[in-house]
């Protein structure tokens, strides 16, 4: 898909004035998430996709002609767009890094028109992966080692969102996805069994179970709640014994899960299928997982769908991309409730004596050039590529290093980064009338 016009009109109107007025000196914009009490932390995701977008951001004749026909743009600006190539530098957190609201996670340094034109695509590319990776990590943090699988494709808001969700949940620690295309594109393990329609298409549950087990003896997880969960489980056990095929597990998708999962586990154990999994799907998220496991409900695996892919309890990310430096001078916003911090910045992570997260320090990059932000693009060329397995390891380590208070699903503290001395001094100086 051509992405050059996938932007808001005002990016073009502003950029045209920049070009016409010769405002093409270097600018620095930073992307950050405004602090929100519903999340103690976020997980970085989408960086590699963003870099590909920036590399491919250019205008072909068809797009130029469309803009010309609009009557809003002059020839000088149209000629500028014909030769447009993003030539800036980008710093970003590595994918899978844990971060706090209020700290910069992407920093773009480029000529002002370039840095402005990529604003919308940058925000659009990053916010959904971050939302899903963060929600998935919260699921992982309470799952107590049980297996998590992304079941969200059919409820995703578009095919791209479904693919992004599969990738984001996988890097956060999910075992895999039901999304076959995501499996192919990212080499993510693919999982799936049967739907209620499969059972209903047969004359009986026994017939449906038998045909499925004969065809997929190594994947014999049967959906037992089409009609009656307990009766369905009895039939699944009977079919497995008759065929001599080990029952790998059963899936529960509705009903009183606490009661049904407990009873089904007892039935499986009594029948000699102690290794069979109890997989629960339907309305699952981190709150459901935490609640059921706190009650010691015997569940081995979860299919997490709608609430994950749309990040139901937090469906949008209050994020922004703001100018912090232009022509070598710091810039910032003083709007009430939306004040921004000036100058390009870096993040340093501080640990306590037990090796757990203590705080993040945000400082002017000139004073602290090394930190969590890495240069991932230089002069428009990508410098960052990483495997999903490596990113998964970073998320797992990051969660392991968070203190218990930050892992609470309803955090009692708003975690914010601490400002370094030079950034604090610069902020006070600029705020002084």
Note the topology:
Blueprint: H1 9-20, E1 26-33, E2 42-43, H2 47-56, H3 61-69, H4 75-82, E3 89-93, E4 98-99, E5 104-111, H5 112-117, H6 119-142, E6 147-150, H7 159-171, E7 176-177, H8 180-186, H9 196-200, H10 205-215, E8 221-223, H11 229-243, E9 249-252, H12 257-270, E10 277-281, H13 286-294, E11 301-304, H14 306-309, E12 319-326, E13 329-330, E14 345-351, E15 357-364, E16 373-378, E17 381-382, H15 388-400, E18 418-419, H16 421-431
Parallel strand pairs: 6-7, 6-11, 8-9, 9-10, 10-11, 15-18
Antiparallel strand pairs: 1-5, 1-12, 2-4, 3-5, 3-16, 12-13, 14-15, 16-17
Architecture overview:
This protein has 433 residues and is α/β, with parallel strands linked by helices. The protein folds into 2 domains: 9-130 and 316-431, Alpha-Beta Barrel (nicotinate phosphoribosyltransferase); 133-309, Aldolase class I (TIM Barrel, Alpha-Beta Barrel). It has 16 helices and 18 strands. It has a 7-stranded antiparallel β-sheet. The protein has a 6-stranded parallel β-sheet with strand order 7-6-11-10-9-8. α2 packs antiparallel against α6 and α11 (229-243) runs parallel beside α12. The longest helix is centred in the N-terminal third of the chain and has 24 residues, at 119-142. The chain is elongated. 41% of the residues are buried.
């Amino acid at each position: 898909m051509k992405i050059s016009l996938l932007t808001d009109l005002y990016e073009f109107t502003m950029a045209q004035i920049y070009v016409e007025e010769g405002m093409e000196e270097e600018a620095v914009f930073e992307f950050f998430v405004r602090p929100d009490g519903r999340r103690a932390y976020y997980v970085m995701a989408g960086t590699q996709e963003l870099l590909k977008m920036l590399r491919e951001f250019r205008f072909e004749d068809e797009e130029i002609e469309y803009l010309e026909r609009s009557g809003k743009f002059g020839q000088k600006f149209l000629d500028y767009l014909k030769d447009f190539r993003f030539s800036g530098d980008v710093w970003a957190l590595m994918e899978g890094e844990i971060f706090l609201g209020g700290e910069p996670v992407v920093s773009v340094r480029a000529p002002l028109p370039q840095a402005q034109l990529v604003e919308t695509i940058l925000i659009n590319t990053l916010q959904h992966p971050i939302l899903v990776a963060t929600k998935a990590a919260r699921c992982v943090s309470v799952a107590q080692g049980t297996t998590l699988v992304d079941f969200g494709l059919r409820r995703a808001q578009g095919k791209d969102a479904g693919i992004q969700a599969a990738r984001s949940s996988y890097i956060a620690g999910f075992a895999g996805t039901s999304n076959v295309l995501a499996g192919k594109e990212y080499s993510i393990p693919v999982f799936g069994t049967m739907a209620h329609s499969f059972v209903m298409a047969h004359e009986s549950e026994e017939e449906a179970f038998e045909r499925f087990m004969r065809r997929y003896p190594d994947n014999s997880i049967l959906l037992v709640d089409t009609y009656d969960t307990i009766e369905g489980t009895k039939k699944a056990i009977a079919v497995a014994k008759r065929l001599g095929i080990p029952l790998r597990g059963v899936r529960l998708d509705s009903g009183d899960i606490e009661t049904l999962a407990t009873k089904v586990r007892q039935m499986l154990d009594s029948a000699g299928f102690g290794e069979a999994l109890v997989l629960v799907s339907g309305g699952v998220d981190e709150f459901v997982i935490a609640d059921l496991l706190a009650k010691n409900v015997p569940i081995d695996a979860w299919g997490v769908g709608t609430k994950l892919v749309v990040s139901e309890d937090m469906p949008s990310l209050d994020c922004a991309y703001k100018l912090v430096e232009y022509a070598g001078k710091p810039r910032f916003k003083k709007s009430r409730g939306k004040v921004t911090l000036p100058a390009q910045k870096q993040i340093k992570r501080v640990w306590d004596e037990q090796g757990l997260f203590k705080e993040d320090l945000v400082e002017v990059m000139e004073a602290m050039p090394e930190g969590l932000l890495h240069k991932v693009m230089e002069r428009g060329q990508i410098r960052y590529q990483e495997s999903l397995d490596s990113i998964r390891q970073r998320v797992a380590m990051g969660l392991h290093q968070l203190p218990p208070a930050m892992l609470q699903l309803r955090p009692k503290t708003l975690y914010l980064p601490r400002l370094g001395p030079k950034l604090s001094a610069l902020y006070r100086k600029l705020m002084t009338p």
